[in-house]
Amino acid sequence: MDRFLRIYMNDQLAMGVLWRQLARRTRDENRGTAAEPALRKVASEIAEDVETFRDIMRRLGLKPNPVKAGLVIGGERLARLKPNGRLTGYSPLSRFTELEFLVMGIEGKKQLWTTLRDIAGLGRRLPEIDFDELIERAQHQRTSLEPLRASAGAQAFGTENSPLSADSDSADTEP
After folding, report:
1. Is 86 helix (H, G, I), strand (E, B) or coil?
2. Composition bias, kind Polar residues: at what positions (predicted)?
3. pLDDT tens, 120-155?
C-alpha cells in the first residue's frame, strides 16, 4: 500500500512542479497587464503548495523522485515550442492556453488535497496538515483566475476586446 502511495505522491509532485513552472512563466509573460497581480499571487501560492506537498512527503518518509520532476520540467520547456499564431513572442492564444492549463491544474490540486485527506487517510495520519485550508486556497486561486481565463479566451477568439493585452499590435501569422 505504501508503495502505491509513494508512486502516487511522486507523480503528483511532478505535476505540482509543472504547474509551478507554468504559473511562473505565465506571471512573467503577463507583466504590465491587468492579469499581473492575480498571476503574481497565484504563482506564489502554487510554489507554497509544492513546498507543502514536499513537507507532507517528508513527514511520510517518502523520497522525491528527481527524474520525474526533471522530465516534467523538460516537457514544459518543449511545450513552449508549440505554435501560438505568431512567429515570435507571446500571443493572445498563449495567454488563454496558459490560463486554461493553470485552471485545470488548480482543479486537479483541489482533487488531490481531497484524495489525500479522505481516500489516502492522510487527514487522520497528519492532523497538523489543514487540508480544508489547502482546498479553500485552491478554490480562491480558481476564482481569481476564471475571469482572466474567460477574458483571454474571448480576446484570443475575437469575441471581445480585452484589457489583458500589454500591447495592441497584431503580429499574427495564421488566420
Report:
1. strand
2. 158-168
3. 999 999 999 999 999 999 999 999 999 999 999 999
Q: Exposed (0-12), middle (13-18) or buried (19+): which is 49, by Cβ within 10 Å?
A: buried
Check residue 172 and report its DSSP letter: B
d(CA 99, CA 122): 30
Rounded to an integer, what distance in angstroms lies between the CA atom of residue 100 and that of residue 149? 6
CA nearest 16: which of 47, 56, 60?
Answer: 47
C-alpha cell at 92: 493572445
Taking the C-alpha atoms of residue 61 and residue 144, their distance in angstroms, rounded to an integer, is: 34
**If 0-12 CB within 10 Å is exposed, 13-18 middle and 19+ buried, where does residue 105 land?**
buried
- What gap in Å lies between CA 175 and CA 165, rounded to an integer? 19
Residue 171 has pLDDT above 50, yes or no: no
Distance of CA 79 to the CA centre of its chain: 14
Domains in the chain, CATH or no CATH each: 2-81+89-156 (1.20.1260)
- Please list the alpha-helical segments (H only) found in the chain: 2-29, 36-60, 66-79, 92-114, 122-125, 131-156
Task: Give the Cα separation of 141 and 106 in Å (integer).
Answer: 7
Under a CB-based contact definition with an 8 Å cutoff, are residues 152 and 92 in contact?
Answer: yes
